[in-house]
Amino acid sequence: GIYTTLTQTPEHILTQANNKTEILCELKEHTGVYWYRWSHERQHFEFLVFSNALGKATYGTNVSQDRFSVREARSHSSYSLHISDLHPSDSGTYYCSVSQSSQLLLGTGTQLRVVDDLPLPPKTTQTPVSKKPVLWITKSKAASRRGPCSPLVWIPLAAGVLLLLLGLVPTAHRLYRLRRRLWLRIHRQ
């Protein structure tokens, strides 16, 4: 199948507490967009909100509907996560995600860091620091370096399991109703 690439902008956000921020996610087809947060501090992957094609939102446990919202851009090809009244505990890597061919595709990720006070810019009298070459780490290298418990390995896996479980709820409910109907029929006779 054709796989959608989910591009998120910006890659990094550094902001002060009590501010608001917006993370943009570009996608081609939209049947619903999920938003997740990976908390580096708590080593925890958390479901925040799902917004369906009609714009109806379903929120995760303990996620404030007053602070988190998903908005659709006019172009219908991008969706943004808005977070208001930011707290340092909101820091983490945010991922937009879509379900495609029974797989959960994650976006490129946006690192949000919320601090009480922004660091002061360096003084202009300092001598310029020479730029060091940037070391690029591919996902496979990062996974092999950290071992099988790398977040790059288990985050998509956990998200897939979560999506699978969410998909089983309507089926379980249908089976329960069918079983109840059969039970009522048997006991009427």
**Which percent range describes the beta-strand content?**
25-35%
Biggest sheet details: 7 strands, mixed
Number of strands: 11
Element order: H for helix, E for strand? EEEEEEEEEEEHH
**Overall shape:** elongated
Low-confidence stretches: 140-147
Helix content: 10-25%
Transmembrane segments: 153-176
Protein name: CD8B protein
Membrane topology: Single-pass type I membrane protein
Subcellular location: Membrane
Can you tell me about this structure?
Helix content is 24%, strand content 34%. By secondary structure, the chain is α+β, with helices and mostly antiparallel strands. Strands 2, 4, 5, 6, 9, 10 and 11 form a 7-stranded mixed β-sheet that branches. Strands 1-3-8-7 form a 4-stranded antiparallel β-sheet, with no helix packed on it. The chain is elongated.
Short description:
The protein is an alpha+beta fold and 189 residues long. It has helices at residues 139-146, 151-188; strands spanning 7-9, 12-16, 21-26, 32-39, 44-52, 57-59, 68-72, 78-83, 92-100, 103-106, 110-115. The chain has two domains: 7-115, Immunoglobulins (Immunoglobulin-like), CATH 2.60.40; 153-188.
Descriptive terms for the model:
Immunoglobulin-like; 2 helices; 189 residues; single chain; 24% helix; seven-stranded mixed β-sheet; alpha+beta; four-stranded antiparallel β-sheet; 2 domains; 34% strand
